[in-house]
Design goal:
alpha/beta, Aspartate Aminotransferase, domain 1, Aspartate Aminotransferase, domain 2, 7-stranded mixed β-sheet, 16% strand
Amino acid sequence: MSSINPSGQLSPALKKRIRQDVQSMHAYAIQDSVGMVKLDAMENPHRLPAHLQAELGQRLGALALNRYPDGRVNDLRRALADYAGMPDGFDIMLGNGSDELISLLSLACNVPGGSVLAPVPGFVMYAMSAQLQGLAFVGVPLTADFELDEAAMLAAIDEHKPSIVYLAYPNNPTANLWDDAVIEKIITAVGEQGGLVVMDEAYQPFSSKSYIGRISRHSHVLLMRTLSKFGLAGVRLGYMMGPKALIAEIDKVRPPYNISVLNYECALFALEHQDVFAAQAADLVQQRERLLKALRAMPSLTVWNSDANMILVRVNGKQEADAAGLVFERLKAGGVLVKNISKMYPLLSNCLRLTVGTADENTQLLATLQKAL
């Protein structure tokens, strides 16, 4: 009997084989960006210079693609440790993007009664990975200004005793850094309960702060980064640093050969030319300041500070009128694609997330947004 009926849906028999919670989930949606100014995914908009494209192409073309990845991946681990300034006594593991590292953490920490806790709104994969591994997810709302609610966080940690607490530094989608003193209180509280804290620094290339200088104070804190915002979103390379004994346990659930030869060679090449990417990040920080100034001059918007390569704005209007949805569609009609996050969480009502682009892209964004408002 076929498992697909004429309507194109799975048969009742096959549906019984798929978890009910999975059937109720929504897949991660990627917007169609063909022909658009793409400012929806916090990518670095700058490409490699032509001479480096040619050099990288020759290097990748010479790889032994018929062989499994080899010890060269350890060269990348050492290069990333040097680049990040990893402290002594720590180790580093690699993932196929930070998404895989988050999934591996949920897999390794899936103990009876285990849970994952994070401030919300935050990165959606914290909750999704927890759910897929059968872990409870506890979301603790931020304040109305998207700051950590210290009392609520500490109370939730005391009540749920989570296996993992994620703190994004800066946060996605709000783009802000949280108070360091509050972060330390949370880290201490989680440690007293015997849990892990993961400091997620996905947007570190654009941030004024990093937790790397404080990570060695704790034996239960991991620091996670990605090369996606560095400028290699298409390569899919995340990395996580922590005490050797802790990394060794989590690394046991990592699939063999999870980093392809193409991934690690591209990443090594990029680190050899990190000055190029540092200049790109510096340009984006300048463009961010330009955008913040221009956006704040628009009376129809509320604009929040940013330490990332994105800016959170709220379209001022009647909440029930879906002002953000209207502006989003007008921007899209004008050839500019941003992220409408107004329905993701109540605190994000009428909010749009704008990625910082090139100078020309930002000019087009501002002009189109002015008309859309």
